[in-house]
């Protein structure tokens, strides 16, 4: 099942981005602005440059309908905790225990993107250019399939000049080790002239449920290295060997945004379906279904195990430019 969402290009072209909604946290640095939706999964609702001709969006903006639906899949980007992408049949074994995540309210056949994106986040410290968002998860025995490990998560979302910087932090509050992954899920405006460039080594091929089957070569690997049109392939795949930088360019508009990530985010997902005008280039710390990966594949799937009290932090940047 693909991630359902809005048509990227139509949302931008129609001008119905909900930039003035009072429920959003508004940040500004010069002509660059952010809108953050703490109550909708701690999401970013818009990231854009304000111009006399109207906003120029670096991420696909949320619309009024998207905010009313309170659906993070229709935001500009949302956080992924405590794992990224799918877990087959919502089950995995860890530390001698069988973990069953089915029935926790996740509407997908395979557990998807963790639970933080389906929770309201608390607003902490804020300024004109930054905001902290906080989430604390305590397992609830009354909820079937609830994530069984307590953890804290924090996002610091800020504008540094015209650069969007997002710092993700998590801490294991449980009294036992916790399997863990994190990332962000940005949607970009997609047009016929959108090109993605990223140095990668291989691609995880996937089945019809978008679950990985094997790691290997694919024409998209070479295409990404040299600049891949967003329309080139039907993709919803993880890429390994990512050098932690990706450029999304709108060649007809002579503008681009560069995504850069620190070492925490060693994996990259490209979601560019043939059937919808959607485009995601996602920095993540683990591949799809990493908790079920065999031991001999672990070096290619990422993820981590956090000891009790252990904290992990990762930093992401989106840098816009014109050329």
TrEMBL record:
Domain of life: Bacteria
InterPro entries (alphabetical): Aldose_1/G6P_1-epimerase, Gal_mutarotase_sf_dom, GH-type_carb-bd
An individual GO BP term: carbohydrate metabolic process
SUPFAM superfamilies named among the record's database cross-references: Galactose mutarotase-like
GO molecular function: carbohydrate binding; isomerase activity
This protein's name: Aldose 1-epimerase
């Amino acid at each position: 099942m693909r991630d359902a969402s809005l048509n990227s290009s139509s949302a931008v072209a129609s001008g119905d981005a909900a930039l003035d909604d009072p429920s959003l946290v508004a940040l500004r640095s010069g002509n660059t602005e952010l809108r953050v939706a703490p109550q909708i999964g701690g999401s970013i609702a818009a990231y854009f440059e304000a111009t006399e001709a109207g906003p120029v969006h670096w991420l696909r903006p949320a619309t009024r309908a998207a905010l009313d639906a309170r659906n993070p899949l229709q935001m500009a980007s949302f956080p992924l905790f405590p794992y990224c992408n799918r877990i087959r049949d919502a089950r995995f074994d860890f530390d001698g225990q069988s973990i069953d995540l089915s029935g926790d309210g996740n509407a997908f056949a395979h557990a998807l993107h963790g639970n933080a994106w389906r929770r309201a986040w608390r607003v902490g410290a804020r300024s004109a250019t930054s905001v902290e968002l906080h989430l604390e998860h305590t397992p609830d025995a009354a909820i079937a399939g609830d994530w069984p490990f307590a953890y804290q998560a924090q996002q610091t979302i800020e504008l540094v000049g015209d650069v969007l910087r997002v710092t993700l932090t998590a801490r294991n509050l449980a009294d036992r080790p916790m399997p863990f992954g994190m990332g962000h899920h940005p949607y970009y405006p997609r047009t016929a002239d959108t090109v993605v460039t990223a140095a990668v080594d291989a691609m995880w091929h996937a089945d019809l449920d978008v679950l990985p089957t094997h790691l290997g070569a694919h024409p998209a690997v070479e295409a990404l290295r040299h600049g891949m049109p967003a329309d080139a392939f039907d993709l919803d795949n993880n890429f390994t060997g990512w050098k932690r930088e990706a450029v999304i360019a709108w060649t007809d508009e002579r503008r681009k945004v560069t995504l850069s990530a620190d070492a925490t985010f060693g994996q990259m997902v490209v979601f560019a379906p043939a059937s919808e005008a959607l485009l995601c280039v996602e920095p993540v710390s683990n591949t799809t279904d990493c908790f079920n990966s065999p031991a001999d594949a672990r070096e290619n799937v990422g993820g981590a195990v956090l000891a009790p009290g252990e904290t992990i932090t990762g930093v992401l940047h989106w840098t816009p430019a014109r050329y």
